[in-house]
Amino acid sequence: MIDKTVVITGASTGIGAACALYLNRLGWRVFAGVRKPADGETLRQQASARLTPLLLDVTDAAAIAVAANTVTAAVGETGLAGLVNNAGIARGGPLEFVPIADLRQQLEVNVIGQLAVTQAFLPLLRRGPGRVVNMGSVSGRVAMPFIGPYATSKFALEALTDSLRVELRPWGIHVAIVEPGPIATPIWQKSLASADELTQALPPAAHQLYGAAMAKARERLLAASQAGIPPEAVAQVVAHALTAPRPKTRYPIGRGVRLAILFARFIPDRLRDWLIVR
Questions:
Q1: Which residues are catalytic?
Q2: CATH number assigned to the domain with residue range 5-277, chosen from the 4 options 3.40.50.720, 3.40.50.150, 3.30.470.20, 3.40.50.10240
């Protein structure tokens, strides 16, 4: 029986739900962050009594404080063994026409919210001592056209993870980042829906400038979503990051992800740009 407690944000669906259920099956006590009570109830019905839904919006400071107090009251001096910062959204479109409000929301959820949650739970992670696992993306290593807001947030999360890992080292709190490629989760459908809404709202000039390229990018995104690996594969990687005696700092996962990272790292930028356009 594993006597460890983890908090997971964005656990309503997809990777977050898969992590919550997988760790629950391994014997962990799981506080699964959800934004709606109905999502929490759905998750609870699939898990043991060790899973507790936790109302948590990572952009709401008051909700974060309440969630931290709830978990503190439950775990006491034992503290936390893990925090999985999984909550995230995806925004896209040509950067020339992306609404600045959309970019702010992208960064608020995927970067600022991650740090706000981490700050709130660090006292419990020190008692553990626990580990932090941030949910990045291959888009945090390779920026493709028309997903600039999303890639920007994931590049920022890479930097946040690196800084945090070194800063928390004196307390034995390891910080890792998981870098999935396409995963078969609802975020892809949400991304496509968001992109379609933005496309419809674009001025005529945007369609003249970017219409053909955006159509090709949408086809690529749709194909990638259909070839995505199951979220349970990511959950297994998260479990390794939380439990391995020598955890990695980065966990690329998915079809072609390691190749894409090598591609971005070693191929000259102009050649890479040409290949992407081709």
A1: 150
A2: 3.40.50.720
